Amino acid sequence: MRLKGFLITIVIILSVVFAILNWQILTTNLPLNLIFFKTEFPVGLGLLVSGVLLSLIFFIVSLIDRAGELRQISRLERQLEDFRTKLEQKRVQELEKLEETTQNGFNELKSATLDKISKMEQESKSMLAGFDNKLSEKLKSMESKILLVRNEVASNVARSEENLKKQVKEIIKS
Which CB contacts under 8 angstroms, 24+ apart, belong to 149-152? Predict the structure, then answer.
């Protein structure tokens, strides 16, 4: 844009210098045939004025185009800001949804873990109860065996005592 402005400025300055140097020639009246009639008119001045008018028209059209572009840029910037706002809202919603999903997953995992722990505790209690029952049965079995062995030992001791008494009596008799 700066290069374009610089070139236009140089062309205008050169045109003004050219017009000043050739002012007398530009203002000289020359015969002019306009198809329907003939007249005398300073053709150079007419060309200069038409060039200036065309330049002004070009300048005004350029300004109007530039103003339209600026309005479009402003509109696009507003749209971009709206899109950014919507994007941020969408991002916040997605983060909230992700947080909710994560929390639900965590709660489900916690519930499943607590259920598993509860089941393991029940299994442990039932296994301990079974072990206690088996241990109790073993103890009762061992007690009955101990009683049986004690009774046998007592019986053997009693026989041995009787045998000893008999032998002592025999020794005394002899």
Answer: none
- Please write the tens of the pLDDT for every residue from 56-72: 888 888 889 889 999 99
CA angle 78/82/83 to nearest 5° reads 115
- In this structure, the strands spanning 38-41 and 30-33 are antiparallel
Taking the domains of the chain in order of start, what are their residue ranges? 2-94
Q: What phi and psi values does residue 129 have, to the nearest 5 degrees?
A: -65, -45
Helix (H) or strand (E) holding 38: strand 38-41
Alpha-carbon span 82 to 51, nearest angstrom: 46
Region 25-29: mean pLDDT is: 84
Distance CA 91, CA 97 (A): 10
Cα end-to-end span (Å), the chain? 153
pLDDT for the residue 52: 81
Q: Which two tokens stand for residue 111?
A: 């519930």
Mean pLDDT for all residues in the chain: 88
* Most confidently predicted of 29-38, 44-53, 159-168: 159-168
Phi-psi region of 39 (alpha: psi -120 to 50; beta: other; left: phi over 0): beta
